Amino acid sequence: xxxxxxxxxAWAMNQCVFDRIxxxxxxxxxxxxxxxxxxxxxxDIAFSVFGNDQTVPLIAARIASTNGxxxxxxxxxxxxxxxxxxxxxxxxxxxxxxxxYFYWLACLRExxxxxxxxxxxxxxxxxxxxxxxxxxxxxxxxxxRHDTVLYVQQPYTGSILCSYPDGFIExxxxxxxxxxxxxxxxxxxxxTLPKTGQFVFEPNAPDAGYGDTSFTNSIGDIYTNRLQxxxxxxxxxxxxxxxxxxxxxxxPLTTNEVLFIQSTIxxxxxxxxxxxxxxxxxxxxxxxxxAQRSVISPCxxxxxxxxxxxxxxxxxxxxDPGSILHEGVGTVHLLMVxxxxxxxxxxxxxxxxxxxxxxxxxxTTRETDSQWKSDVRAGNxxxxxxxxxxxxxxxxxTFPSWIY
Length: 404
Hints:
Blueprint: H1 8-14, H2 42-48, H3 56-64, H4 78-89, H5 100-110, H6 127-147, H7 173-190, E1 198-201, E2 215-218, H8 219-248, H9 255-262, E3 305-312, E4 323-329, E5 333-342, E6 345-353, E7 357-361, H10 369-378
Antiparallel strand pairs: 1-2, 3-4, 4-7, 5-6
Helix pairs in contact: 5-6, 7-8
């Protein structure tokens, strides 16, 4: 079994369909800027790869058409097509002699040379002849693709799936290193714990949830699971550290590093229509023996929580009624950040940011997580701290029905 081969005409087709085409009409980046042209055309190859300028009126007419071929005509993509043409024209001549496939394309490129000079017969100087030449180029190209159908990598129109585009890692090199060190230090300490025996879970235990059944795990298996988890956690932190260092030094990311960012929640090559949590982020959450029996990843759980951190007893002598200081975490906020690395290179990224609340209750009241979640769901929240004003824009949040 051999991997399929990259060829320039397949690449050219991919650049002229969704989701490679961006057409921004309002200056605000968004998904609606992605042009939904889903079907390319042989004319795209004739212009961009073969360099045939006689196709320009035909392509322009298709772009302007309001009742042409569905998913192909009526979409602006001329900027992508022109960019592909520039790439092809800029190739070193040695590229076109690299292999027989490229040589064949180079031969067809030669047919795009104009024949309007007076040295050519009158028939060859007509528009009809140029269309005959175009037809010859595309027929020969069809034979080439037929002969190499199992060899050439097939271009695919992009699918609308749940995946991450290129992303930005907050470049905190020392933080990521410290996180990795903490995981490895925890592993060292855990290695001193017992490795023999059994853990038995009983469904009638006080913390057992609905539907739990009894099960037994060996301490050795739990021990191995924990060490593997800590090793993996440290590995992911080291990758975040390395990407951060590259961002600060303005170095391009490798293909694997880009894939790492795109695989935050789901591996883009494995994702279908059901969450499988195949990305790296779900696996920096510890899956214990009980959680492994759940179809929901710990990373997908709503983790709003509250805790009391300090008690101020009632004091009649100074007139203090007393209170209990609480700290709470609510729903996540959506961060929108524009990252400007170079004068002409800026990108807007989006990501989750935790929320934090601080409030006091009476001297005998300590709020539980369930009470706090009810307050969060009902919108009965204390005000955000004053220091969030410079960056936090107030808004509303509607809870999805599946959050519990």
